[in-house]
Amino acid sequence: MNPATTNGATAEPTILTAVELTSDQELKGGFAGAAHQILADLVSEGAALGWVEPPSRDEVAELLGHVVSAVRAGDAALRAAYLGHRLVGLGYWIRYVRPTHRPHADLEKLAVAAAAHGRGVGRALTAGLIDDARAAGIEVLTLDVRGDNTGALHLYQSLGFTEYGRLPAFVAVGERRYDKVFHMLDLRLRRG
């Protein structure tokens, strides 16, 4: 399934599921490299994605392989955002492994290329991942955000996530320290 284009670009991002992404050989073939570029660029610019230094291509490919395997097992969801034929964002959640936590999942990564900020990509990716979680029977979707990431904090809160805890000065980036802020979305409250 190729992202729709209008004169080489789309006004709105096209959001693909892991199944759609991996069933298109052209998109599948370029996904890991494009994802690496986004993640490496964002980390280089100081983004709060869990790395201090940009991840290697192999590290990103291994991570994505793990996520896709979990998707196939029903334990994860992956979404990719395209503007035209260019990957501009990705996000995923993974179900908790511990048996007592299996009904729940953690939104582990959401990354949007700097050039696509302000285009609704993060919102569209997160909304799609929430829909996937609901469809998979996830009861509570959790995430954590670095305290200075005000854009992400606002986005998650606008989508119904609530803060349930904070570890002051927990995240260390060189000499700087940031709060680690925990959020949750209780999907049990929205079942019919």
Estimate percent helicity. 25-40%
Low-confidence runs (pLDDT<50, min 5 residues)? 1-10
Number of domains: 1
| Average pLDDT | 91
What's the β-strand tally?
7
Discrete helix count: 5
Radius of gyration over C-alpha positions, nearest whole angstrom: 16 Å
Question: What this model shows, in words?
Answer:
- The chain has 5 helices and 7 strands.
- The protein is of the alpha+beta class.
- It has a single domain (14-190), classed as Gcn5-related N-acetyltransferase (GNAT) (Aminopeptidase).
- It has a 7-stranded mixed β-sheet with strand order 1-2-3-4-5-7-6, sandwiched between helices.
- Helix 2 packs across helix 3.
What would a concise description of this structure say?
By secondary structure, the chain is of the alpha+beta class. Helices cover 34% and strands 32% of the residues.
What structural keywords apply?
single chain, alpha+beta, seven-stranded mixed sheet, disordered N terminus
Question: What's the arrangement of secondary structure elements?
Answer:
Elements: E1 14-17, H1 18-23, H2 25-44, H3 57-72, E2 76-83, E3 86-95, E4 104-112, H4 121-135, E5 140-146, H5 150-158, E6 162-173, E7 176-186
